[in-house]
Amino acid sequence: MSVRVIICERKTHWVVALRQQLKTMSIRLYQTRSLQECWDDLPSYPTSLLVLELTLENKTDLINRLCRLSQDFPDARVVIVAERRLQNHEFLLREAGAIAVSFSPRHLGPVASLIGRYVENRSEEHTSELQSRTNL
Q1: pLDDT by residue for the chain (136 residues), tens digit each?
Q2: Contact 31, 53 (CB under 8 A)
Q3: How far is it, in rounded angstroms, from Cα 136 to Cα 123?
């Protein structure tokens, strides 16, 4: 089961900034434009790391989905990106299950490092799982 990094945003400023931070790593970003499209990918890629943009328009839907994620897709993880004006929601987002939150495309270094570690760890787990299957 391969891991995907799926970024969900309406425009492209977060994905552009994240690609810049990830340029030394060979990590492919899959972009979606809606939360529903992102959730539609999860059954096929349940170990995905989701980078979800919080907006005033999707706030309620995103938080509800985030709260259900650990039940529906326990191996998936979420990073939230949002404009600074939404910083007052950070505690709620972390309580709902976000493993990281960023409010500036210029400060995605820690998020990029987290993504790199996540993909590396999941890839190693996948390789180990395949090796143990072939040794049976």
Answers
A1: 578 999 999 989 999 999 999 998 889 999 999 999 999 999 999 999 999 999 999 999 999 999 999 999 999 999 999 999 999 999 999 999 999 999 999 999 999 999 999 999 987 665 455 455 555 5
A2: no
A3: 20
Alpha carbons 34 and 8: distance in angstroms, whole number: 6
Closest by CA position to 10, among listed 88, 62, 85: 62
Alpha-carbon span 53 to 134, nearest angstrom:
40
Tokens of 40: 């539609």
Round to the nearest angstrom and report the end-to-end CA distance of the chain: 18
What SS3 state is found at 104? Answer: coil
